[in-house]
Design brief:
By secondary structure, the chain is of the alpha+beta class. Helix content is about 15%, strand content about 50%.
């Protein structure tokens, strides 16, 4: 399934707007489609593009044969797809994520609210693949699938509302692939990938906390430039803090929403070897894809906040059009990680068994830097420092008859996040998975597959996840997922 990522709001309070929009955009850039874990990939990575492969927990995903989804996952393996074939998959991912914990603001005061309810839901993930064989040794294919995505949504008034409310991220790939049979037993394949990423993020703005950030940063710096001494600065800040609490007491909330998008390009390269008539292996490399998301951040603030902005504007010489919490444009760079996949399959008359190992380089995800058009919203860096992750699976097919195939598999997927870097938008954890599937061939032209995966319940600990305005959420998530996939493949 997927997972996702969240950008803590900006940590510089030159503007509360910076905080919000920045978190939104940054998060948008780095997130995915399911939640405390995608069913078969780390963080916000998704694997759900083949019901046939899912039935065996994607063991032998590049080597089991008869699966047109290799167009997007391992182009060299198209060597085993003879003639022209069309495959369509639809997957429903139902995930559950419930939080239990508490939150405090930047001054250590408890934040009132509930636990947000079930942040999960049910998400459809479609896929489409086509392969044809122009010559005996050349195979070409085209595919559309969703390799990264996530979505979470909390109830209004929950304690972590300043860290995130709704997060929706999706990367849609259009892949053009080709493979060449170098020899009878060895093939090379390559792909060009066009990736369109869309993001939608909403959060609640802690107006009181934004005021404190502005005092501690912009106002403090302003007073230093005016040559005020430490004692005078402290006295003036203490006086302004009381005014902030009077004008915008704790619980004075605004909102921010962000929508952003980008189109970027990547590539794949792989090899496929038939070691013996019954054994084959494949190796595939998928490049990272660098995005520069561009979007609009829209804010709503209560009347009391407008009064506070006027006070700060008079002191800091803000132009009205450049006040914090004003709608603005922004951009941020985000890179989807490179992935290396190794796949093995052994074939016999009555069964086939395989193994898959996939390494994802999440350590490229060190921080998110967001730049805003509003000059009073400076660049913001959100540090993530994720680890690399490893997916391993074993599974196989049992050919009950020449028309009916039974499948099963087990998998373990490590999370790139840990308690110090985990957040409410992507509460990811290590996943243990069990898969079952059935394949049926009603005619010589048509294959139909149905598969089911259960992700066993896991725990994701949040060890003080901060918001842009310094609010800290502490607690844990418990989550699990159920996935159902249907597929049809037609041989022309």
């Amino acid at each position: 399934m997927q997972r996702f990522f969240h950008p803590s709001f900006f940590h510089s309070s030159s503007s509360a707007a910076t905080s919000l929009a920045l978190t939104a955009l940054a998060l948008a850039i780095t997130a995915g489609i399911a939640l405390p874990g995608n069913v078969r990939a780390s963080a916000f990575q998704l694997k759900e593009d083949s019901a046939k492969g899912m039935g065996r927990a994607y063991a032998g995903s590049l080597t089991a044969g008869e699966d047109v989804s290799v167009v997007a996952n391992g182009p060299a393996s198209m060597s085993d797809v003879k003639g022209t074939r069309l495959q369509m998959d639809i997957t429903a991912i139902k995930f559950d994520a419930t939080f239990k914990g508490s939150a405090v603001d930047s001054q250590g005061r408890p934040i009132k609210g509930g636990n947000g309810g079930n942040a999960g839901g049910t998400i459809p993930v479609p896929a489409f693949f086509l392969v044809t064989q122009p010559t005996e040794r050349l195979h070409v294919g085209f595919g559309v699938n969703v390799p990264f995505g996530f979505q979470t949504k909390y109830k209004r008034g929950w304690v972590g509302r300043y860290n995130g409310m709704k997060s929706r991220f999706q990367s849609l790939d259009a892949t053009l692939s080709a493979s060449w049979d170098v020899t009878r037993n060895f093939s090379l394949g390559a792909s060009v990938i066009a990736q369109k990423t869309n993001v939608e993020l909403t959060s609640v703005v802690n107006i009181n906390g934004a005021g404190y950030l502005t005092l501690n940063n912009e106002v403090r710096e302003y007073l230093r430039k005016k040559k005020y001494g430490p004692a005078a600065i402290k006295a003036m800040l203490d006086q302004m803090k009381s005014q902030i609490d009077m004008l915008t007491p704790p619980g004075t909330d605004g909102t921010v929403s962000l929508k952003a998008h980008n189109l970027a390009w990547g590539w794949q390269l792989g090899g496929y070897w038939k070691l013996t008539p019954d054994d084959r292996i494949a190796l595939n490399y998928r490049s990272e894809i660098k995005h520069k998301l561009k979007g609009n951040a829209r804010f709503t603030v209560p009347p009391a906040a407008q009064k506070s902005l006027v006070v700060f504007a008079a002191l800091l010489d803000w132009e009205k059009s450049q006040f914090p919490f004003r709608d603005t444009k922004g951009d941020a760079v985000f890179t989807t990680p490179r992935v290396i996949t190794g796949s093995y399959w052994h074939q016999s008359d009555k069964f086939g068994v395989g193994v898959d190992v996939a390494w994802t380089q999440w350590d490229v995800f060190k921080n998110i830097t967001v730049t805003y058009d509003n000059p009073n919203q400076p660049k913001t860096v959100d540090v993530k420092n994720w680890d690399n992750s490893l997916y391993t699976s074993v599974g196989g097919d049992y050919y009950l008859t020449n028309k009916l195939t039974l499948r099963g598999g087990l998998a373990f997927d490590s999370t790139p996040t840990y308690s110090k870097t985990r957040d409410v938008r992507v509460p990811d954890f290590n996943r243990k998975m069990l898969s079952l599937g059935v394949g049926y061939q009603p005619t010589r032209h048509l294959d139909m597959d149905v598969s089911y995966v259960h992700v066993f319940k896991g725990v994701a600990v949040l060890d003080g996840s901060p918001s842009p305005t310094g609010d800290v959420v502490t607690g844990e998530y418990k989550g699990y997922a159920d996935v159902l996939a249907l597929s049809a493949q037609y041989r022309f």
